[in-house]
Structures are given as structure tokens and as C-alpha cells.
Please model this.
Amino acid sequence: MLFFALFNQPFGCFLDNFLKLSCIFLIKEVIYLEELRKGELRKDYILDNWVYFVPGRKTRPRELHSHKHSLSVPSAKRIDFFAPGNEHLCPPEIGRIPDKNGSGWSIRWFENKFPALTPEGSPDIFRENDFFVHSSNFGFHEIIVETPNNEKQLHDFSVEETAQLLRVYSERILALGKKDGIKYVLVFKNFGAKSGASIIHSHSQVIATSLIPPIVAKKVSASNKFIECPYCRIIEAEKHSPRLCFENEFGIAFCPYASVYNYECWIFPKSHLERFEDFDFEKTAELLYKVLARLKKLDASYCFAIHYAPKGSRLHAHIVVMPQIATWGGFERGGGFVINTVLPEDAARFYRGEE
Model:
């Protein structure tokens, strides 16, 4: 009725009233953002996780300088185990993507020389009593070397190169998921010292486990409480929110409402897809490329992981990008709470290039 009344009047009055209404909306938006910057406690969309947003704390001197990824340039004395010509220094190759000339490789993968999990042992769980339950470190741990160029990181890749890597991720999820005793294949990437990366040469990791990762299990359990997929509804809401970063015909990238990490970003397909192999890798690469290109501006460490539906479960598959900027202390580690100094609305503005 308000807009009908606006149009049902002389143009001069219409313009005057339209400008007044626009000013009202703008003022309300400014007031809302200013209120947010005073701080707010937010709950995750469906998980029982709470985050305190305290934007004022990001002006602390340590917070301003602690996010640097601290990756040093490889020295002549340091051996690059992942470089072309050093393949013999790594475990036997499982597979590779040839380079355009066909004489070398653009991506290759092999077992981790220092695996967290190994195929020896059994996925069986043993219970001694109510308190002592154990199993062997059963599973598979692989390394994916993303490029032969040791001076190139994933955030320097083209969209085409990123899409090619996503296809390899999908192939490893499918291949390792067929192994006996494996319930989940977690693909993840660490960049920078603060993320836990120990090797400079750009690479990802794949760990196939006999257990479903706790965070994935929580998302599955929470999703099951809804008749329809909650993430489908969340996507529809975030498409029109100030937390939207990027969007294309396939998917959406946005900063979650209760972001755990500074500048955290999620990438979802708009359609309800539960398996990563069903993604449009080119369109997903477009979104991931834009996110990582902006993160490069921060010069920060980051991680990302792929979450999908385990066998027999329901979960809207997605990619979670987690910059490693803030340093957690006793409140987070001892209390299980999280303090985030960057509002997701501000983080999204950064991704969109508006600040």
C-alpha cells in the first residue's frame, strides 16, 4: 500500500516522498549497523553454538598484526620435497594430472609420508567399560600437490586451475570412500603457519576415517530436526542479506550469521546437493577463486574443508573457508565460547571489495 500510494500522486510529490522514504531506510540501516558494532551474541543457524561479536576488540595492537601467515620464501638450502624432480623423495604416486605438454604433471597425489592414520589395524571399536573406549588409528592419509610451482599458492590459481583441483578432490572422495571400514573422506587445505601448514609448497590433504567428523555429525543431526533441508532455507535468506559475498547461477558464497572465525565464508550450491561429485566444479571454482583472491589481500593463514552427507545421511554439501586470524585464549578454550571481532556483515563488505 505504501508503494501504491507513492506512485498514485504527481511526480514532484512522488520524488520528494521517495527520497524521504529512502532516507528513512538508510538511517535505519545505519542505526542497525551501529548497534551491531556495540556487540552482539549470536547463535548458529541450527547448531547449539554461540558467538560473541565484539568489533571494538579488533583495534587491539596484537589483533591487528597477528594474522600474517608468516610463510617464508624457500631457501636454496631447504629441500622442496614436492618439487618436480624430487618425486623419488615422496611415497609412490597414486595418481596425477598431466601438464599441457604431457611431459610433466600439474597435480599429483600420494600417501602422506607421515600419516595421521594408516590402513594397518582395524576400524573396530573396543569398549573396556563405560569410560575407556578405543580403536586403532585406522584410515588413509594422502597429499595432493596442487602445482609443480613452489612459488604459486592456491589463491594465485586461475578459475580453470581451481576447477581442475576440485575435480581431483571429488575423485579422491569417491575412491577412498569405497574402502572397507571408511565412513567419511575429509578433504581440507591449510595455508600459512597459523593454519597448521608445515610445508610451503601448495598442497591439500585427504584423510579417510572410520568415524564421521564431529562437526559433520552435528550438522547432520541438527538438519534431521527439520522436515526440509534447513540450509536450503538459509541460502534463500542469505541471498538477500548484507552477508552475501558472491553469487552465480550455481551457488552462493556468504559469511555465516554466527561466524566462528574472522572472515569465515561458506560456499553452497543453490540446489540441494548432498554429494560433492555432483557439484558444478567450474561454477564452484568461480566462487572459491573470488573468496581466496580477497583473502590474499589480508595476507592471512586460512583453512578450508569440504562437508558433504555421509552414506545414509542428509546434509546440504558445502565448502567452509576458515581464516586463521584471531588467537584463542582461556575464554574460548576453557569455556567453549567464541569471541569474533569481525561482524560477518563487515566481512562480506570486505569480500565484495567495498572496503
About this structure: The chain has one domain: 40-351. The chain has a mean pLDDT of 88.
